[in-house]
Recover the amino acids of this structure.
C-alpha cells in the first residue's frame, strides 16, 4: 500500500503540510513533505506506503521517486530507520507507483462524479472552444497510449487559445494514465481525451497527478523529487505501470 523529531521518523502524521519538513532516508535531504512519501510498518510487519499520511505509527520518509524508493529497499534502509525487523517487498518501488496510479484514478473518478470532467474528443474540443466563458478548464488530459493525431489537434487548440490575447489561466496538459485506466475512472470505454473542469475534486486530481508525475520524472532526470516541483504540471508523456 501507499500512502517525517528525529530527522527520519515521527510519531504520526502532521497537519501543517505547507511548512512541515522531513529528511529523506536515502538522499538525506530535508524537503517539504509534499516532495516525499511516508512509509509505515503494518501490523503484519510489512512496510507500506501511506499516501494520505494518516496511517498510525512512526513514519519513514523517502523522496517521491521510483529510484529513491528502490534504493531504500536495496540499502535495507527501512530496517535501519525503523530499528526493527520489517518485511520489505523487493517490488516496493513498483508497488508504490501502482498505488499512486490507483490514487490518481480514484481522484479522477471523484471529479467525474462531481461533474468536473468531460470526455471524448468532440466534447473536449467544444470545452476548449468555450474555454473560461462557460466551462472553466483546469487541465487537458490525454491517455498516455493515445493516438498522436488527436493529441496534436487538442494540444494545438490549447496553444491557439493561449496566444489569442485573452487573459486565461494556463491549461496544463497531462497524460498520467492509460486509456484503460481512464475508462475505469470515467466508467466508459475507449477514453483517450478528457477535460478537467474547475472544482475541489479537480484540485485533488491535479495534486495527486503532480506526485505521480514527479515519482516517474525524477528517475528520468536522475533527481529525487525535483521534477515539476513548485510549478504547475506541464505537458508530460510518462511511462505507465
Amino acid at each position: 500500500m501507499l500512502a517525517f523529531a528525529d530527522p527520519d521518523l515521527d510519531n504520526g502524521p502532521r497537519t501543517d503540510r505547507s511548512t512541515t519538513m522531513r529528511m529523506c532516508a536515502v538522499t538525506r535531504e530535508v524537503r517539504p513533505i509534499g516532495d516525499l512519501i511516508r512509509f509505515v510498518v503494518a501490523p503484519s510487519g510489512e512496510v507500506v506506503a501511506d499516501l494520505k499520511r494518516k496511517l498510525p505509527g512512526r513514519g519513514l520518509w523517502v523522496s517521491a521517486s521510483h529510484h529513491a524508493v528502490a534504493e531504500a529497499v536495496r540499502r535495507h534502509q527501512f530496517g535501519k530507520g525503523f530499528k526493527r525487523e520489517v518485511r520489505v517487498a523487493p517490488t516496493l518501488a513498483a508497488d508504490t507507483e501502482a498505488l499512486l496510479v490507483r490514487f490518481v484514478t480514484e481522484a479522477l473518478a471523484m471529479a467525474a462524479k462531481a461533474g468536473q470532467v468531460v470526455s471524448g474528443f468532440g466534447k473536449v474540443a467544444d470545452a476548449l472552444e468555450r474555454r473560461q466563458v462557460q466551462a472553466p478548464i483546469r487541465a487537458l488530459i490525454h491517455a498516455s497510449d493515445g493516438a498522436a493525431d488527436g493529441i496534436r489537434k487538442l494540444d494545438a487548440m490549447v496553444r491557439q487559445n493561449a496566444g489569442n490575447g485573452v487573459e486565461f489561466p494556463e491549461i496544463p496538459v497531462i497524460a498520467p494514465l492509460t486509456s484503460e485506466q481512464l475508462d475505469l475512472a470515467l466508467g466508459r470505454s475507449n477514453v483517450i481525451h478528457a477535460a478537467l473542469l474547475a472544482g475541489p475534486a479537480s484540485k485533488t486530481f491535479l495534486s495527486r497527478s503532480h506526485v505521480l508525475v514527479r515519482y516517474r520524472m525524477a528517475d528520468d532526470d536522475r533527481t529525487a523529487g525535483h521534477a515539476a516541483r513548485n510549478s504547475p504540471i506541464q505537458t508530460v508523456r510518462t511511462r505507465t505501470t
Observations:
- The two ends are 15 Å apart (CA to CA).
- The longest strand covers residues 36-41.
- The first helix runs from residue 66 to 74.
- The chain has a mean pLDDT of 83.
